[in-house]
Write a structure and sequence with these properties.
By secondary structure, this protein is an alpha+beta fold. About 25% of the residues lie in helices and about 25% in strands. It has three domains: about 15-180, no CATH class; about 190-280, PDZ domain (Pdz3 Domain); about 285-510, 2-enoyl-CoA Hydratase, Chain A, domain 1. It has 14 helices and 24 strands. The strands form seven sheets. The chain has a seven-stranded mixed beta sheet with strand order 23-20-19-16-15-14-24, sandwiched between helices. Strands 5, 17, 18, 21 and 22 form a five-stranded antiparallel beta sheet that branches. Strand 21 (about 435-440) and strand 22 form a beta hairpin. It is globular and about 75 Å long.
Length: about 500
């Protein structure tokens, strides 16, 4: 283990002894759930520099300069900012200009009455060394974090600004490491009303507020009369300002407590007031149904909400059951799927793709890694191969602006392997893999650690998105009336792909 303590510092015999003690202490310190070890480096008679590093990094040594620089009397929260600063510089998929991170953490300054904007990654605000920049920031902390909202944590504001300055959908601040690090391994209930709300839509004109795109069956919102297509204007009298993230926090709460919503509904002459009593909500991971279709018999429609591990069983079971019922073509709806666990992506993709590469990841050091279908012998997967459940059947994939990450990868692979065709809108262009790291106060930071490419097409659509073969928009009026032109166009295409027509009126639903 190599620890950089500063440039040009002469190593005293006491420091050698102390360093040996660090190694012993580190070896005896158990890792926390994040795979991080916490250790204190004695650097002066009156202080310690606390560094939080992944176990692998601590074993390999910190990159030159990452733990260096003058130290200050510890301020509450400063160690959180420094830990995030070090992690972003060490682990982000591309090198980051340190000065840009520090400037982003400080936030906007007002000059002559105008609000400035922090420089983005790669900018060079000054010729000063990283140490000098950090020294100036730390010596004035927390006052060095400008424009902190009342009641907000300056450290969290600073870290959030640093991640946002990278303009990367996979790099973000997490207020709760424990919650977010295991979210994709479970399906927990929460106190809320049972809706999915999106602030970015392709409507013209733009809606006056975030739009409800899903209402969970038998949930509090459904029972209170909230509809898809409704635009939320206020929550408990507070304007939401089209920010879906804060809207989620305002809507969620303890089961049994009321929340008042002002909504704009297509066709209504004036805003409506709806009060919903929050309940215990479990978001449906999979929604599957069969529709009878003239000319080709039955079409199976499967909506996958997210790539969380608990979704695999319901997804595979729904496909098996519908196939046994005589389904001859498939619609896979990924329009509200923002991605998730890469392990589940492999399992889901392997239901459609019998063998071959599914993805390629390229880390910061440039070393590529190929991810194979679990049914491919080259994958090295344990256990029997996953059978391909939809072999030979046509697949239409529905995607849109909220289709991101693993969902984009699945859509791209189905296109590249000529198994499916894409309908809807251009996807989010959120392509990459990330890892969450724990910060000293229990918060965390998600960091993009590798770029991503589709399996055989080697397409990297980060910040670009996948273009659909057939562009179809679903408007608020469509939502309010129950129409779905995206599904309709997909079914039209499937009619041309199924050779032998079958007529049936059977309808099956699985949730």
């Amino acid at each position: 283990m190599r620890v950089v303590t500063g440039r040009g510092r002469t190593e005293h015999w006491a420091w050698r002894v102390a360093r040996a003690l660090i190694v012993v202490a580190f070896a005896l310190t158990p890792p926390n759930p994040a795979g991080l070890r916490v250790f204190a480096i004695p650097i002066a008679p009156d202080g310690y520099a606390v560094r939080y590093l992944p176990v692998a990094e601590a074993a390999e040594g910190v990159p030159d300069g990452f733990a260096s620089g003058p130290l200050h009397e510890p301020q509450p929260g400063l160690e959180v900012v420094r830990a995030a600063f070090d992690l972003l510089r060490a682990r982000y998929v591309q090198p980051i200009d340190a000065g840009s991170l520090i400037e982003a953490a400080r936030g906007p300054e007002r000059t002559g009455g105008e609000e400035g904007t922090p420089r983005g990654p790669g900018a060079s605000p000054s010729t000063d060394s990283v140490d000098s920049l950090w020294d100036m920031f730390a010596s004035r902390y927390p006052a060095s974090v400008l424009g902190v909202p009342d009641g907000a944590n300056p450290a969290h504001v600073a870290v959030r600004r640093m991640t946002q300055s990278l303009d990367d959908c996979h790099t973000s601040f997490s207020s709760n490491y424990e919650r977010d690090s295991s979210a994709l391994q479970r399906s927990d209930a929460y106190g809320g009303i049972g809706v999915v709300v999106r602030s970015q839509m392709s409507f013209a004109p733009q809606p006056p507020g975030p739009v409800v795109t899903q209402v969970f069956a038998n949930g509090p919102a459904s029972k209170s009369g909230l509809h898809i297509g409704d635009a939320i204007l206020t929550v408990d009298g507070v304007t939401v300002n089209d920010v879906a993230g804060s809207l989620t926090e305002r809507i969620r709460g303890l089961p049994g407590t009321p929340v008042s919503l002002t909504i704009d509904r297509p066709g209504a002459r004036s805003p409506l007031e709806i009060t919903v009593v929050r309940g215990e909500v479990v978001a449906p991971l999979v929604d599957a149904r069969i529709i009878p279709t003239d000319g080709i018999g039955m079409v199976g429609i499967v909506r996958l909400q997210t790539f969380a591990q608990p979704a695999f069983g319901p997804f595979a079971d729904a496909i098996n059951r519908m196939r046994d019922q005589g389904v001859r073509a498939w619609v896979v709806d990924l329009r509200e799927n923002g991605g998730g666990d890469v392990g589940l992506f492999v399992r889901i993709a392997s239901l459609f793709i019998s063998g071959g590469p599914l993805a390629h990841t390229v880390a910061r050091e440039g070393t590529p890694r190929t991810i194979w279908a679990t049914s491919d012998l080259q994958s090295g997967a344990e256990g029997p191969a996953t059978p391909r459940l939809v072999d030979g059947m046509p697949v239409a994939v529905l995607a849109g602006r909220n289709t991101a990450s693993a969902a984009e990868l699945l859509a791209g692979d189905l296109e590249d392997y000529r198994i499916g065709r894409l309908f809807g809108e251009t996807t989010a262009g959120c392509f990459g893999t990330s890892r969450i790291y724990r910060l000293p106060d229990g918060s965390g930071v998600w960091i993009t650690v590798s770029a991503l490419q589709t399996g055989i097409g080697h397409r990297d659509v980060h910040r670009v998105g996948l273009e659909p073969a057939v562009t179809v928009l679903r408007t608020r009026a469509d939502m309010a009336s129950g129409r779905d032109p995206v599904v309709d166009r997909a079914v039209e295409w499937l009619r041309t792909r199924v050779a032998a027509p079958v007529t049936t009126s059977h309808v099956f639903q699985a949730r």
